Amino acid sequence: MTVKILSIGLRGLEGYRVQVEVQEVPGIAAMVIVGLPDASVKEAKERVLASLYAFGCDFFDKRLVVHLSPPERKKHSPMFDLAMAIGILKAMGKLTAPVSPDAAFLGSLSLDGAIQPVDGMLPAILAAKKLGFQKVYLPYDPTLPLHHLKDLGCIFVQTLEETVQYLQGQRVLSLSPAFRTPEIMDSPRKHHRDFQSIIGYHQAKRALEIAAAGGHHVLMVGPPGCGKSLLAETFPTILPSLSHDAQLEVISLYQLAGEKIESGHPPFRHPHHSASSVSLIGGGTHPKPGEVSLAHRGVLFLDEMAEFAKKTLDMLRQPLETGKVTISRISSTVTYPADFILLGAMNPCPCGYLGSRTRYCTCSPKQIQAYRNRVSGPIYDRMDVLLSLEVIDFTKETRVSESSETIRKRVEEARRKQYERYGKEITNGRVPFELLMEKSPLAKRQQLLLQQWASQHQWSNRVQTKIIRLARTISDLKGTEEIADESLWEAMTLRWLKTYTKQQATAR
């Protein structure tokens, strides 16, 4: 008789139903696992047999065939251990109680029969909910935000013996730990920086406020010490808190990557410019999320952007445009979400002092052009805001800056308007252009003005689209229903990047 037990397999964040079939067949004693298992799944036979031996069942003289269906998908997680053990016990008559077809079994087994969590537990649980499972047997993990999954019965088991006793109705397990709120979900904001502490840079702060409100990408260009890194590291303090669904997405991605997340607030990723394309985009034999996915719903800061390999930067084109990244390998093709705000920072030239009022630039025109070409035209096109920065003269700066909390309240209000306008949690920087034009069409005079400036500055269609998106965000911050002329003018000025030739820099 063939016994069928259900579990969950993962393909990126997407989960699918895995049917664990167990049957005893005549032949040489062994346990054979089929269904495209990888090394971690093949080794499960040793873990499962050892845990069954610790449970008091010895099946070393039997020939057992374990089939993981669907057979065409590669299985690459020890998450199926518990389902295999239950299936073997059921097939050999040690478990007589029926197993519900609406129950899934998740977890890895240790040699003494203890059930342990593995990477990807949260996305597997979310997938079980979408697939219509009513119960999930799994090990308890205090970092899982299960208190929001009330539609799914999570039954926490510590050992294989507990699981069997529960299935046979001999033991009642407590479900109360599931509804304890993890610290990462409700931890208060703890920031060591505040825009109020940054003197000057009022134009830059205004640009960053617009970027935060509409989810726009920003490229900051300026000499060393002008505050690019300081502004970027302070930028997360004005971002709104993540919604419940967004937090679940972020935690799921970090679990798949095997990393810990410090809080439930927008993530901030700051990879070094020597980072490889695999670490930035994601990959590996079994593709894991990269920095662009770990920055999902948050910020990806690329300091010294021109020092990154050009090939690596060009790989950002897909996630910048679509908000997701597709990684294709021989074993599988995986798509991860990558909806982040890109903050780039670079110097105007290799030495950094082109256009400086206090230092002389030592770079030749050929070196300057080669340095600028490290960031390709398509990447420049995908940046919404081009921001020129200069060193601030603190002796002449008297204007008081607003606090991050004050700015964040305006950003939250602007995003609320966007969510109401589009009927879902999406910003002006990500909404399909057709829907943006349907909800906020430009007046005829505004279209003519934009076309005139586009022709004068040789802006591509993508740049013109981004200017309209910026203008919509600026109008949201101002509280106007339609795109105002002033908002369009301000949006066009945000695409103005100061560029100095060698002769102009020398004259200064």
Automatic annotation (TrEMBL):
Domain AAA+ ATPase: 214-374
Source taxon at top rank: Bacteria
A Pfam short name: ChlI
Molecular function as annotated in GO: ATP binding
InterPro entries recorded: AAA+_ATPase, CHLI-like, Mg_chelat-rel, Mg_chelat-rel_C, Mg_chelatse_chII-like_cat_dom, P-loop_NTPase, Ribosomal_Su5_D2-typ_SF, Ribsml_uS5_D2-typ_fold_subgr
NCBIfam families: YifB family Mg chelatase-like AAA ATPase
The family this protein is said to belong to: Belongs to the Mg-chelatase subunits D/I family. ComM subfamily.
PANTHER family: COMPETENCE PROTEIN COMM, MAGNESIUM-CHELATASE SUBUNIT CHLI
Protein's name in the database: YifB family Mg chelatase-like AAA ATPase
Organism annotation: Geobacillus zalihae
